[in-house]
Amino acid sequence: MRRRSIFSRCVAATLAAIAGAAIATARAVPTPSAAPRYDATAGQDAYDWKRWAEHWAYRPVTKPVVPGLAEPAWGRNPVDAFVLAKLRAAGLSPAPEADKLTLVRRVTFDLTGLPPTPEEVRAFLADKADGAYERLVDRLLASPHYGEHWGRHWLDVARYTPGRVAFPGVKGTAGDSHYRDYVVWAFNADKPYDRFVTEQLAGDLLPVPAASAAGDADARQQYLDQIVAPGFLSIGAWFDQETDPNRLRLEIVDEMVNATTRTFLGQSVACARCHDHKFDPFPTQDYYALAGVFRSTRVVGDVSDNWRDGRVRQLRPLATPDQVAANDTVRRKAADLQAARWDRLVALHAARSAAWHAAEPAYRAAAATVAKPFTLAREAEDFDGQDNLRIAQLSRDGHAVEVIETQTPTAQWVKYKFTVPVPGRYRLDALYAAADRTPLEVTANGDVAARDALVAPTGGTNLAHQRWGTAAVLDLKAGLNFVRLNAKEGAFPRLDKLRLTRIDPDIEAQVKAVAAANKLDATLLERFVCWPNDPWPTVADTEVFLTDAEAAELAKTTAEADALAGALAPYPLAVAVTDQPDPVDLPVYLRGQTYRPSAYLVPRGLPRFLDPALPRPPVPPGESGRLELAKWLTDPRHPLTARVMVNRVWAWHFGRGIVDSPSDFGSRGSPPTHPELLDWLAATFVEQGWGVKALHRLILTSSAYRQAGAAARSESSGAAAVSAGARSPVDPHQLDPDDKLLWHFPRRRLEAEALYDAMLSTTNNLARQPAGKPLEFAKSSNRAMYTLTTGRSPKGLGPDVRKMLGLFDCDLSGAPVEARSVSATPAQSLFWLNSPLPKFFADAFAARLLKMTQLTDPKRVEMAYLLAVGRSPDKAEEERAVAFVGGGEQAGEAGTETKQEAWARLCQALYASSEFRYVE
C-alpha cells in the first residue's frame, strides 16, 4: 500500500483532532486542573523518526580524522587540512597569504569592530619576529573592545534592539541595557558557552554563589549575572497593538519559543504552533510541551484583563539576597511606622467626628447666615480627554465608586471643561488618594497654575485613604475654560471628585467672623457653606484639625519612617524573569487560535526529535522546566548546540557559515559545505571547555583566514599554486563563484556600527581601552552600539544615527537576525554625500588634522589616509589630495571656501571611498 505523504497525514491528524476536540465557547479558556492529559503517542505517526535520526544535523557529533595536508607549507592547523581537501577535490588552490597591512586591518576590525590606530599598524609592520601575527590576535582577544563587537554579533541573534525597551515612570532601571552589558562582559571574560547558554535560559534558577553573601566580588558578580542573563527571554517584541490579554500571553510565549529554538538549536519550531511541522520533525504537541515551559515563566509583573498592563516587564533589583533582605527589613519597619501613624489618625478622626456630628445643627445654622460662593462639582471620570489613565471601579459600603488612576506610568494627563459665569480666581480642590509623592502640573487655558499639586501622600490608595486637597488657584475667564492635570512619570493620584469654588474675600471674611462669634471651626464651617451635602472631613483630612501636640506626635512618626526610607540602599533594577508560582501545562490551541483549545493538556517538556541521540530529562512537578531545557542543550552529547555556535562564529569571521542558514539546520536549511570541518570544530569546541576565544584563535591563525582576497589573488599571477605539484590552473570564479570552498578571503563591507565607529575614530573622540583591562562602559558610551541608549550621539543628530543604522542593514525591528543582509543601494551612496552625519564627522576630522600644525600638507594627507583607511597614500593619491585642498584654500582666500572646508571635503571623500567601507 502506498504510504501517505507527511502533508496528507498532517491534514488528516488535524481534521481528526478538530472533530474530536471539545471546542471552548467563544472567549473562554479551559481550566487546566479540569482538563485530561494527552495521549503521548498522538502525532507520532506523522513522522518517520528513524529517517529523521539520520539527518546530518541530528546525528551525534563525532570527531573526524584530520585529512593529510597535500601542501604542508600552506596549512597551519587542522582547519586548513579540511579546507584544502575540499579545494583540491574541486581542482582549486587557495590564495596566497595577505600582506601584513591587509591582515592587521582585517583582524582588528574583525575582533573589535574598530580600525587599527596608526601606532598599532606601525608596531605590527615593524615586528619581524616569528609569531607576530599570533601576538596580534592574542592582544585583540584581550581587548575590552572585543566583547563589545562580538557581543553585538550575539545581540543580533538575541533580537536586542538598542533603545527599544524602556520603563517610563520606573526609576533606577536602564531598560534592557543590563542584558546588553552582560553579553559584552561574558564575551570579554570568555565565559564558557555552556554556562552562557544556561544563564540566559535559567540563570535565576541556579544556586546562589555561597561567597556572594560574604562580600566576594567575583561571586557577587556571578549572582548578578544570573539575574540579568535571563533577560534574553524578556527583551523580545511585545505586541503593542494586541488588545486581548489571553492572546497576548500566548504571543509572548510564542516569541520566547521562537527565539530560544532558533538561537540555540538552529531550528524554527514556531511553525508547529498551528499544525504539525511540515518540513521538520516537530509535532504540535511538542511545540505546546515547550510552550508550557515558557508559559510557566514569569516575564511581566502582571497580565491583567486590562490589556496595557501586559507591557509591564518584570524587574528585579541588582542585589544579592542578603542585600535585598536588609532592604526588606527596613521597608517593613517603615511600613509599621506608617501603619501606626494611620491608626493614630483614625483614632483622632473618630474622636473629632463625634463632636462634629453633635455640632452639626450649629454649623448648618451658622452656614445659613453666610452668602454662598459660586461652586461646581465634577466626578473625576467625567473628563474631556486623557492619556495613559483609566477609570477603575472600587466599592464602598456596597456601592460602586469610580476613580481615575494610572494605566501606564509615563506622561499622563487629564483635561476638564469648566464653565463659569464671571471672570475671577477659583480654587480647584480634589478628593484623591496617593501612597507616594507624584507632583502634578495644573494648567488653566494653557497657563501653568501649579507645578506640585496634590503632592502630599494620603497614607495609601484605598478609598479609606482619600482626602481633599487644593490642587491650584486658577485665574479663569467668563464662559468655557480648560483645566488640565499633568504628571511626567510615576503613579497618578487616584482622583475621585473635583470641586471648583470661586474665591470671594468678602465671603471668606464672613465665614471667619461667624465662626468666631459661634465658637465654631472656620475650616469646617466653610465646608458647610460651600458643600452642605458633603461637608465631613475624611480620616486623612483630620490633619488640618489637629492640635499642635497632636501634629507634633504624627510628625515625629513621619520623620522616623522617612529616615528609614532614606536608609534604603538604592539598587538598580534590571529586566528579569522568574518561574510562575504555579507552573501550568497548556492545551493544544487548534490552528494556533487562542479560543480553540483542545480538551487535553500537554505536559511541559522538551522536543522529542533528538531522543535517539540524547534522551529528554523529565520536568519536575512544580517547576517550569527551563533548567532542564538548559541542561539538555548544554549536554556534551547534544548534536546541535555546539554545531550551531561554531557555525555562527565561522560565519561572523568569513561572512558566510559552513552552514549558510545559521538559524536553520533543518531540512529547509543549507547543507554544510564542509561537514567534517563543522563536526571537528564542534567536537574540539566542547573538548576545550566551550571556550569561544580558543575557537577564535583556531580560526584566525589558520592559513584559510590569512588568505588574500580575490583581487590580490588575480594580481599574483598564479602564485596561488602553493606547490609544484598543484593542479593545472582553473578559473575559480566559474567553479565556485560564491567562494563557498574558501579559495580566497571574502571581501566584506563593514557593519553599520563599524562604519559609524570608524568615522568617530578619525575624530579622536573614541577612547581606546588597553588590552587585559576591564571594559569601562562610560568611556565607550559614544560607540554606535550604545549611542541610542546613552544619548551620546552628536548633538541633534540622534535621528540621523538611527537612519544610518537602518540604511546599512542593522535591523532595528526586534526580530532575531541570524546574519545581516548586505545591500547596495543608491541611498547608501547618497548618504556619504548628503547626510549631516558624515559631514559632521568630516568637519571634526579636518579640525583634528589642521591642529597638527607641525605637519606639512603632504604629511597631513598621509595622516588622513592612515586614520581613515589604515595605509599611506601612493604618490599619485598624495599629489591629487594636496592639489585638492590647496585649490580649496586658494578659493577660500577669494571668499568661497575656507581651509577647514576644503580639508573637510577631502575627509568626506575618504569616508565615501570603498576602501573605507570594506575590509579585504
Order of strands across the main sheet: 4-7-12-9-10
Oligomer: single chain
First-residue to last-residue Cα separation: 59 Å
Main β-sheet: number of strands, strand sense, barrel status? 5 strands, antiparallel
Q: State mean pLDDT (0 to 100 scale).
A: 88
What spatial form do the alpha-carbon principal axes imply? globular
Counting helices, strands and paired strands, the structural category is alpha+beta
Describe what you observe in this structure.
There is one protein chain. The protein is built from 33 helices and 19 strands. The protein has 920 residues and is of the alpha+beta class. It starts with 5 loop residues before the first helix and ends with a strand.
List the helices and strands and how they pair.
Blueprint: H1 6-20, H2 49-52, H3 78-89, H4 100-112, H5 118-126, H6 132-141, H7 144-157, H8 177-188, H9 193-202, H10 217-228, H11 245-265, H12 284-295, E1 297-298, E2 315-317, H13 321-358, H14 360-367, E3 375-379, E4 385-387, E5 389-396, E6 399-406, E7 412-420, E8 424-433, E9 440-444, E10 447-453, E11 467-476, E12 479-487, E13 494-502, H15 505-517, H16 522-530, H17 548-566, E14 573-575, E15 578-579, E16 586-589, E17 597-602, H18 626-633, H19 641-654, H20 675-687, H21 692-700, H22 710-715, H23 732-735, E18 748-749, H24 752-762, H25 777-780, H26 784-790, H27 798-807, H28 826-834, H29 836-850, H30 857-869, H31 875-893, H32 899-912, H33 914-917, E19 918-919
